[in-house]
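Record type: monomer structure entry
Structure origin: computed from sequence
Chain ID: A
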Amino acid sequence: SLLSFSIWYFDDGSINVKNRQATINSQSFTKEECDKLRDQMIEMGIKNCTVSKNRDKPIIMINSGSFLDLIDMVKTYLPSSCMYYKVDLSNFKEPNYTTRFGCTQT
């Protein structure tokens, strides 16, 4: 459920606002278990997530395509203000796609 996932995120998750990524530290799970968890996340609407490795252990990465969706989903279940840093987007900036000639792409 979304509540269960949110609790897991607030416990084992982290964000990198600059890169528009989030990580679920799932190193205690096997690769196969992480694949199943990733599939469940995709079913919940977090489409851009992958299983990666950190020190040869599996982690789940939420990439830029689903980063804001993830934050919107879990912030509803923010357990207390001490966990706000896990959904804090105050430093978030939309990417500025400027070509090498100084033209902005649309």
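Annotation 1: The CA atoms of residues 95 and 101 lie 17 Å apart.
Annotation 2: The beta strands are 13-16, 21-24, 49-54, 57-62.
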